[in-house]
Amino acid sequence: MCAQAAVNQTEITFAPLLERLRQTFATGRTRELSWRLDQLERLHLLLVEQEKTLLEALHADSGKPEMEGYVGEISFVKEEIRYVRKRLHKWVRPERTATPLVLQPARSVIRREPYGCTMIIGAWNYPIHLTLGPLVAAISAGNCTLVKPSEIAPNSSRVLAELLPRYLDAEATVVVEGGVPETTALLALDWDLILYTGNGNVARIVMEAAAKHLTPVILELGGKSPCIVDETADLDTTARRIAWGKFYNAGQTCIAPDYVLVHETRKEALIERLRATIHSFFGEDPKRSPDYGRIINERHYHRLMGLIEADRDKVVTGGEGEEETRYIAPTILADVVPDAPVMQEEIFGPILPILPISDLDAAIRFVVARPKPLALYIFSEEEANREKVLSQTSSGAVCVNAVMYHAANPNLPFGGVGESGMGAYHGRHGFEAFSHRKAVLERSSAIDPTFLYPPYTDRVKRWLKRLL
Fold first, then answer.
1. Is the domain of 335 the same as that of 231?
2. Which residue is catalytic, options 220, 346, 419, 432?
3. Measured on CA atoms in the order 294, 295, 297, 302, is the torsion positive or negative?
4. Are residues 302 and 217 in the same domain?
């Protein structure tokens, strides 16, 4: 039934689909720890047995190289599952907490219960990772879930729609494919929680729809994640790490370095090292490299080439594109001005603007004058400089002398702030995000202090005021 719903969604209405999920949730089976562990194990089995199918779908959608597909998508979710399954039995236990003396004798606990029926709207740039990663969190918390993969990655969407009902409890996890009309219809329903990964414009639509039902949302967005390179940075290591993060998945990563603020005395040296690093990574012609991806579709290809053309005189390496294959070379733009087109939006492609700065204070002023990014990267060997950036800027996350690594640590929350999103998940943070923390206080019936009840005599009032 659910697999058919995933393929022929235009023949059904989504309200009955949500009602079936509610009926499943009402049975209580998704609350059981054994069910959660079993579903996570089955999801892990899907990733193992269908690895080749998933990698082929990823490559068909965006030319994603095999290792990028495995490391950034399949392995990532497998590790998340292993991490969660190992610890879930501890997380689901009621959490004992203190009770004030005036309420004694009593016992206070926090019980984590699933929200109920949740919806996950996945993203196209990592269509496996950013769809199944949140699903791990939803299952771990005991929810029923509707998964809406991104239609912009149609091959990955189709594969998920075919495989998830085969491996998972098809009455508790369903898939709906489709575009804007289907998503709009789904958003009109009364979900218990919605997680959306994508851009801020759509996030506002999601949040507006959710507000009609007072549905909580987790919004994983993006932004222009800056790299700050001060005069003490190790440029060889810095160049390798920035280039790796920027050109991974052809720059189509929400936490990719978006632009570089480098101390003016080190700009030329950094650019030379970046150029050398690109050559060492992808060879003389990156188009021929098996480790370099392609742009997801023609619209994004033309958008990115437009950004390059607007600053063609700033190109110091790359700048070439091939429309037929949606290839855009790893591109560096030097001496970019703040009001350039490439600095007005999240790039989400293999273009790296370099902006010289006079000092660290200028870099900090530049960053804080703009919307809060999903990530910020500081490269410095000076502890005081690193601490200054950490304490004077706001972002979803920070990496020191690294890029993107924080997203691979399940002990850290992954999420944005302000324009880059709200809420966070990964590891226990995902379990918590998909759980309601219910306060429970239990009192004994054997002892019942009567002074708490009216009528209140003057003596009781004086006593209560001292006590409270």
1. yes
2. 220
3. negative
4. no
